[in-house]
Design a protein that fits this description.
It contains 15 helices and ten strands. The chain is α/β, with parallel strands linked by helices. The strands form two sheets. A six-stranded mixed β-sheet has the order 1-2-10-7-8-9, sandwiched between helices. Strands 5-4-3-6 form a four-stranded parallel β-sheet. Strand 7, helix 9 and strand 8 form a beta-alpha-beta unit. Helix 3 runs parallel beside helix 4, helix 3 packs across helix 7 and helix 8 crosses helix 9.
Length: about 350
């Protein structure tokens, strides 16, 4: 088993010497070739399966570092606003560290799998009658008023840890990828990947994809009431807006939007054609390639190798899966009847 993420990449992390390692053996996630997607887009595509992390999403990479630093600094509790994955991760790592955890989520806007995780890990979960952006402003104020560590992506240690995904991509491939496609919500992950690639001297083109109903970076202004089936990226005013746009510009990449229908088409394609079950927001990276192709800057060649980041596991949002999947076939306990049901 590979050592914990912090131990593998500590030379690139900004932890203090005496900080404990609060770990669930996150990282070392698979980088899987995607032959059918490759055929469709005309490039060699790999899928970075971040849903294999301990709580089922990429958030664990940053959370192990942020909670380790908080524990080392003497914090007794952590708090975050979340559309789900940050809540699950913060709750798990707080429990692992023996700290209290509190999460504020938009009421009725969090997938049931993520809510179950946060509750089972023992966090205090507050359902806010508002959206993520309102929740985020409240937790920032609470963190200013009380000695509690804010572990949203404005926390620099979160970005520090999330850079390790870029390290892994570079370590595993013979050469760094020529492009990276990634969903964009609060914009911390695209910021972290670019920072990680820079450490390794790599500069892939960044393709960031937002849901059309929650696309402030595409529209150029905050979205007051963001709406999309991809709950993990249902964010109207990203905390890392400026850093993300700087990364995209520096890489000669682009930010674009995909509709919910396009996201769901890619979601089904990944599951049925590549055998990979991700949450809807994750599929935005593939939906973007399907819809927008491989845009290139003037004079540049289209990328030959692309990594699509799939940020969370499909079991995070079972309601969407069951609502979009084929119906279960009921059948009586008779071999002939079952045979006809199986073979049509």
């Amino acid at each position: 088993m590979p050592p914990p993420l912090i131990e593998r990449y500590r030379e690139h992390l900004t932890l203090e010497d005496g900080d404990p390692v609060v770990s669930l053996n996150e990282g070392s996630t698979p980088l899987v070739p995607a032959p059918r997607i490759s055929d469709r887009v005309g490039a060699e595509v790999f899928l970075k399966l971040e849903g294999v992390n301990p709580t089922g999403s990429f958030k664990d990479r940053g959370m192990t570092v942020a909670v380790s630093r908080a524990k080392g600094a003497g914090a007794e509790a952590v708090i975050c606003a979340s559309t789900g994955n940050t809540a699950a991760s913060a709750a798990a790592y707080a429990a692992r560290a023996g700290m209290r955890g509190a999460v504020i989520v938009p009421e009725g806007k969090i997938a049931v799998g993520k809510l179950a995780q946060a509750l089972m890990h023992g966090a205090r979960v507050i359902a806010l009658q508002g959206n993520f952006d309102e929740a985020f402003e409240i937790v920032r104020e609470l963190a200013n008023r009380h000695p509690i560590e804010l572990v949203n992506s404005v926390n620099p240690y979160r970005i520090d840890g999330q850079r390790t995904a870029a390290f892994e991509v570079c370590d595993e491939l013979p050469e760094p990828p020529e492009a990276l496609a990634i969903p964009v919500g609060n914009a911390g992950n695209i910021t972290a990947y670019w920072a990680g690639f820079q450490v390794y001297g790599a500069s892939p083109v960044l393709y960031g994809f937002q849901a059309a109903g929650a696309a402030p970076l595409v529209e150029g202004h905050p979205i007051e009431n963001p709406e999309t089936i991809a709950s993990a990226i249902r964010i109207g005013n990203p905390a890392r807006w400026e850093e993300a746009m700087n990364a995209v510009t520096a890489s000669r990449g682009r930010i674009a939007a995909v509709t919910d229908d396009q996201i769901l088409d890619a979601y089904r394609f990944l599951a049925s054609q590549e055998g990979v079950f991700c949450e809807p927001a994750s599929a935005a990276s593939v939906a973007g390639l399907f819809e927008h192709g491989l845009p290139v800057a003037d004079g540049a060649e289209p990328p030959k190798t692309i990594v699509c980041v799939l940020t969370g596991h499909g079991l995070k949002d079972p309601d969407t899966a069951l609502g979009k999947a084929p119906q279960v076939i009921g059948c009586e306990a008779d071999v002939g009847v079952v045979e006809r049901a199986v073979f049509g």
